[in-house]
Amino acid sequence: MSDYYVTLDRIIENHELEIVFTPKNVKEIKITTSEVNRPGIVLTGYTDYFDPLRIQILGWTEFGFLLNMSDGERQMALSYWLEQHPAAAVVTRGLDIPDYFVDACEEYNVPLLKTKQETSAFLASLIAFLNRELAPRITRHGVFVEVYGEGILIVGESGAGKSETAIELIKRGHRLIADDAVEIRKVSDNTLEGSSPSNIRHFIEVRGIGIINARRIFGMGAVKPKEKIDMVIQFEAWDATKAYDRLGIDNEYVRILDVKVPIICVPITPGRNLAVIVETAAMNNRQKKMGYNGAKELMHSLGMDDMELTEKELEIWNNS
Q1: Which pTM does this prediction carry?
Q2: Is 180 a catalytic residue?
Q3: For residue 308, what are the contacts with CB-CB under 8 A and spacing of at least 6?
């Protein structure tokens, strides 16, 4: 069960469902789990593991099963199911809903909806929607941009130049997703999705200028509502005592909502073109995901296996 909920009216609107019956305003009906269910065996009376919080999906199989019953058997089967008070029922494929089915839902106060979509397609679409809406989430301070198809989360202290870098990236043809506050959702076990809170969407704060609307200034092509987080780039002030990675053989990772995301640290010094660095990091990360690592190719061309480099040798290389 999720700590969040989505109201039934949003599901209806998003999937263009038809309301056949509802016991109360659909805005008051809360769905709290992304799991869905097809009644199946519950119609035979086995209800031990039935979860009433799940939306119930019925297609040809369920209605065919009911049609082959006598009136008494059908009434009993519907009672087994509906007396568990499921969150809602959706009939797929635009099937005609018999009066006895509508009457049963009204008797047990179970919302009844209808869609023209095929069962499997609707199931997939509904689960994806619920997974996103009910996903665990946190909000992080930073800037989130799409660069060459990669979702790049830029973090760092205030004044590090994150927003200015985002504007330069937008001018170079990339897209802004969020500035200042990035809402991160765990939409699957290994996938994070970033978006902007609705009240600050498309706005960027630039010191010395103020608040600007990126969509209004740069056009619709400069913004995007959400994107998968592929990489984190941390901006930090240059520290002469710190050894920064100059090889990039192995990825470093940060855990966000228990999902590993590649991270690199970019030291900031006057004259560095941060937008170009972010572009290069995005392309390099994309290549690594496709199986190519430039540092490893260099080591191989020099006749050195990267595993042969000791920690001392790596330290010497990075400090040289």
Answers
A1: 0.78
A2: yes
A3: none
